[in-house]
Amino acid sequence: MTAKVEVRGLVKSYEEKVVLRDVDLEVQPHEVVCLIGSSGSGKSTLLKCINLLVPIDRGEIYVDGVSITDPTVNPNMVREKMGIVFQAFNLFPHMTVRQNITLGPVKVHGLPRREADQRARDLLERFGLVDEVDEYPDRLSGGQQQRVAIIRALATRPELMLFDEVTSALDPELVAEVLNVIRDLKQEGMTMIIATHEMGFARDVADKVCFLDDGVFLETGPPGDIFEHPSQPRTRQFLQRIVEAGRL
Amino acid sequence: MTTPPPDDIRGPSLWTSIRRPRRYREEGARAAIIAAISTVVVFALLAWWVLSSEAWPEVQQQFFNPDHFTASWPDVLDGFWLNIQMFAVAEVLILIVALVLAMIRALRGPAFFPLRVLVIGFIDLVRGIPIILLILLLGFGVPALQLPGVPNSPLFWGVTALVISYSAYTAEVYRAGIESVHESQRMAGRSLGLTQIQSLRYVTVPQAIRNVIPALLNGFVSLQKDVALVFVLGVREAVREAQIYNARTFNYTAYVAAAVLFLVASVPVARFADWYTERVRRRRQSVGGV
Predict the structure, then answer these.
(1) Do the chains contact at B188 and A109, CB–CB below 8 Å?
(2) Which CATH fold would you assign to the domain A5-244?
(3) Could you tell me how far CA B289 lies from the centroid of its own chain?
(4) What is the ipTM of this complex?
(5) Strand partners, A209
């Protein structure tokens, strides 16, 4: 079976600072992979590389067996296959919820407006946000905004979803509503790569957990192994601090 | 006593925190009265000083002569109507051309390099040339070539020169606006599969324009007056009409008449720009506070 995503020998640096040293990752169809590690370990950068939002220095990324880092590949074709959700929501503040959601389907996929509107309504209905369809983002709570951002990414019918610390900017009481949406997507069989600080959630939802430290994967395995019997001292140290902070 | 006991610190601070609002209100009212009185006094003194000076009758005769004002008014007003038309046409073109220039400049990637160089070169070139020189060059120069199929009206080329010059400046205003929109917005747009141009068109530019409307209005005010520069081409707008009147009568009141018209047109726009800027600032603060 071809992997949904395969990353080989990825190197990425911002000016002098090397963020990803030599990263290999394989994600099978319908698999949920959680990336954990301290801030600055390279989780967000890895996701942005996979979405081709930042240029990479070295290495290869394959989606469905096709190299997307080949310079002749049209990055827009790649992005159409996947959706990404950001830590800071990044909704378009000058557009209503409906406009935010339908922009991609209408302008990129050429969906007729009526169908795009219906698709937006269906998704909003499913995630309990249909009343907000004509609101502007700054009228919504953080949790609602992030759910709209997820819906916006889903509206283009991606086969792969990338989540970049999507609950880190939320008040604690709003975290669950966003995580439940992701759990829902797992039920559906969505392939997902999730960078997160929510360890309980990662243990619960992940098929595979990758501990990223200083730009390399120190440890990769099923959540049971990583959280119960971490083999690397750095992983143990990291998890110990999480436990001390009361987050696991 | 150098170090008052804690009670003393708590006492006065509580007292002032209660009393302060009323005291400020009283101070506000008093300040308004003082401002009103001092304004009246200062302006009265100024008026008295000007009107009682020995040179005043001569000044009034030359600049504020009611007869000359009435006599020159119809022609100057006619000319001013042309100023308004030139302004309206030029402003619309400037807003469009400048936006296109700014968008080209914002495109990334090596493929667009030649276009970016072209735009940056154009902007640098035009901003480095005095506007009056551009008007003379195009307004006299191009018609003199007598190229077939090319308009040879000085009015056309004068307005063209204004559009070229102002587009370069306004493109920089738009660019500042585009750069003020956070990078994450562009990323969100691109992640949906939008092309660079689509992402600019639907995501970045609408937000950018909102951010620079005060600066654009400022450019409006400036252009309203700079359209008068085409008088050097002999276009019979307000300043040219005033100049003609002055040449005939050796009296400068016609210039003052033209000045009054320009003021009447530009002061409201300047006030509106201030009001709008303040409104945007307040709204931003209130949103930031939530």
Answers:
(1) no
(2) Rossmann fold (3.40.50)
(3) 30
(4) 0.88
(5) A34, A221
